[in-house]
Amino acid sequence: MLAVTVIGNIGNDAEIKEFNGQKFIAFNVASTERYKDRQGNQHSRTTWVSCLKPGESSVVTYLKKGTQVYVCLLYTSDA
Asked: Can you give the pLDDT at residue 77?
């Protein structure tokens, strides 16, 4: 099993999109890492993750730009 966890802020308001007749909630999450190098200079690195949640629900009304979210995905292979 593979587990992926993303904690960050939503980049844009979530949207309901349709692909091949199936509806999804689509949103992007930004996670920023801040650190200092050996010389004491501060740096930051932002990673963007695109998320698609199958189905449509009222949760889309809460997924607004700037909202902090915790997204967890569990993936299993039938191999």
From this structure: 78
